[in-house]
Amino acid sequence: MSKIGIFFGTDTGSTRLVAKKIFSLLGEELADKPKNINRTSLDEFLQYDALILGTPSYGVGDLPGLAVGCQERNWQEFVPYLDDVDLSGKRVALFGLGNQERYASRFASSLIQLYRVFYGYGADIIGSWSTEGYQFEHSDAIIDNRFVGLVLDQRTQPFLTEERIKTWLAQITPQLLPALQETA
Predict the structure, then answer these.
(1) How many angstroms separate the CA atoms of 34 and 5, rounded?
(2) Do 63 and 117 meet the contact criterion of CB atoms below 8 Å apart?
(3) How many other C-beta atoms are found inside a 10 Å radius of the C-beta of residue 59?
(4) What is the pLDDT of residue 62?
(5) How far apart are CA 31 and CA 104, in angstroms?
(6) Residue 61: other Cβ atoms inside 10 A
(7) Are 127 and 175 in contact, with CB atoms under 8 Å apart?
(8) C-beta atoms surrounding 80 within 10 Å
(9) Cα dihedral angle (97, 72, 9, 107), rounded to 10 degrees?
């Protein structure tokens, strides 16, 4: 498909709100409306060569889903549909939510699970993000001293969210556009 697909998992609705903000900033010419992963078919997901995927943090760095206490189906239930799917040629940017004060020892660690899944299926992961400006003890979502995607703290730093999203989108959009042009 010649637009960016935005998919998210959510439990409280915060990740959905961030996905909507990302869509609003990208505009409908570049992206399709965000879709909850629990209402997405594999065929619909695979239509996109440029993807922005979001996840809440849940459990102790778990992939969010029913087995770890989410109220609705989430990434944990969608990922098995990807078995035997080659995602080579797909460009994927990730974002995750976390609370750096309450969960300082595992801040936004669920994001690494999403990274591992899509990297493992051959996707080109883009959009790493600086750890500067956050106060936490540990996060599994760090590779080479950077988060594997945009990390937002809607609880303790909501005032930084919009600027962080804008900066991140300025970074990733040019990297996602070649994937769009290849399919056009």
Answers:
(1) 7
(2) yes
(3) 17
(4) 79
(5) 33
(6) 20
(7) yes
(8) 8
(9) 20
Residue 75 identity (one-letter amino acid)? W
String of DSSP letters for the chain: --SEEEEE--SSSHHHHHHHHHHHHH-TTTBPPPEEGGG--HHHHHT-SEEEEEE--BTTTBPPSGGGT-SS--HHHHGGGGTT---TT-EEEEEEE--TTTTGGGTTTHHHHHHHHHHHTT-EEE--EE-TT---S--TTEETTEESSEEE-TTT-GGGHHHHHHHHHHHHHHHHHHHHHHH-
Place of tokens 């299926």: 121
pLDDT tens for the chain, 184 residues long, are 589 999 999 888 899 999 999 999 999 999 999 999 999 999 999 999 999 999 988 767 678 888 877 788 889 999 999 999 999 999 999 999 999 989 888 899 999 999 999 999 999 999 999 999 999 999 999 999 999 999 999 999 999 999 999 999 999 999 998 766 665 5
Type of residue numbered 110? S
Amino acid at residue number 100: Q
